[in-house]
Write a structure and sequence with these properties.
This protein is of the alpha+beta class. The chain is 15% helix and 31% strand. It is built from 2 helices and 8 strands; from the N terminus they run E-E-H-E-E-E-E-E-H-E. Strand 5 and strand 6 form a beta hairpin. The protein is globular and about 40 Å long. It starts with a strand and ends in a 7-residue tail after the last strand.
Amino acid sequence: MTRNLKHGYAYLPGGHVEFDESAGDAARREFLEECGVEVRVGNAALVCEAAFSTKKRRHHEITIVFHVEPVNLKGSRGKGARSTPPTVKSLEPGIGFDWLDLASVIDHDVRPPAVKAWLMTLGDEASRLEWVSAMHPDLR
């Protein structure tokens, strides 16, 4: 998870799509820019939209979550069968990276809320692409 160091909330790594760039290429580029990790981008797993406000303005975002696998990131093998996740260092000021166990997502401020809810249900129907919109007037 990417952590906003000033405000403490977490979100999945990523960023904005550049003009004429595919969403998958943007995900690949953002991983490299933010933490120097090269990833293979797989299928989309979740699409959600939400509106939120900051001190400066209102925002409307569409989030596309992809399955990604690191190409150049290796964990260390301990005495147990599980791999220890490596430390991921931020290349950008203001953000850090944390590994979160899916069971602990409920205890963290993960944004947007639709992504948090989806992460908490992974394993139920993880192979199905899901579209979640918080934009319907009844849901605001």
